[in-house]
Amino acid sequence: MKSIYVLALVALTGIHLASPTRALAWGQQAKGQTGEEDQAFTSASTMFQDLGRDKMAVIQAFENYVERFPGSQRIGDAEFMIGEAYMQHALHILKAEDQDKRNSSARLLAPKNPAAAKALDDARRAFEQVSNEKRTGIGPSAQYRLGEVYYNQKDWAQAIQAWKDVDKKYPKSYILGESLMGIIFADLALEQFSQAEANLFLSARPTPRT
Fold first, then answer.
1. Which value, to the nearest 10 degrees, does the dihedral of the CA atoms of residues 95, 97, 98, 101 take?
2. Is 7 exposed, middle or buried (0-12, 13-18, 19+ CB in 10 A)?
3. 73 within 8 A of 86, measured Cβ to Cβ
4. Widest distance between CA atoms in the chain
5. Could you give phi then psi for residue 137, rounded to 5 degrees?
6. What is the pLDDT of residue 179?
7. What is residue 53's predicted lDDT score, i.e. its pLDDT?
8. Could you tell me the CA-to-CA distances from 98 to 50, 89, 186 in Å, in that order?
9. Contact 170, 140 (CB under 8 A)
10. Residues of 107-126 as b/e, b for ≥16 C-beta within 10 angstroms?
11. How many helices and strands (H and E) does the chain possess?
């Protein structure tokens, strides 16, 4: 009964977890980039935006960028996009598997998909590379994404800690509200209903913007 009450409060607020577009915080166009660097980065970014594109090809494009231009000022952006692509690849696998389970009772007890688990681990490693990046502004988004990785791995406690670290490391970040909502959903998953309710009301407070 308590969980229904808290979920109703969440629905009434109209607040939801950040979408990939919202959470993405690009570094500004770096000065001193060569035309070759800009072209390679733009090409990889265009591939990412193509919804029909295999995300593993996108990952390869950004990894090639990191390898070719190790001194680039957009390395952080590239690492972040590698994490984004791995995350989307994992979620695509999980969504397809969930649909299969709905259509076949024989798969209801299927073990965790190893391909999705690996993609989430790879996403975590990519986001960790830039979760402390303050120079370009990509750090808060990467730290937030770490929470999403753990949440999708059903490691609720670790997800909560990752989202709390957004506030700890970036107290003036635009993404604090989304991080708090993530904590609320993780609280609910852990059946910590009183804590979820307390955090829900805390989320109604204005959050700082940078």
1. 160
2. middle
3. no
4. 60
5. 90, 5
6. 95
7. 87
8. 24, 14, 20
9. yes
10. eeeeeebeebbebbebbbeb
11. 10, 0
Are 85 and 122 in contact by the 8 Å Cβ rule? The answer is no
d(CA 209, CA 108): 44
* CA–CA dist 88, 169 (Å, integer): 25
Using CA of residue 155, residue 85, residue 88, residue 92, what is the dihedral sign? negative
So what's the pLDDT on residue 206? 60
Mean pLDDT by 10 residues, the chain (210 residues): 44 41 43 86 95 92 96 94 96 85 57 88 97 90 97 96 96 93 95 92 64
Compute CA 162 distance to the chain's CA centroid, rounded to the nearest angstrom.
11
pTM (two decimals): 0.80
Concatenated DSSP letters for 87-151?
HHHHHHHHHHHHHHHHH-GGGTTPPPPHHHHHHHHHHHHHHHHHTT--SSS-HHHHHHHHHHHHH
d(CA 128, CA 38): 24
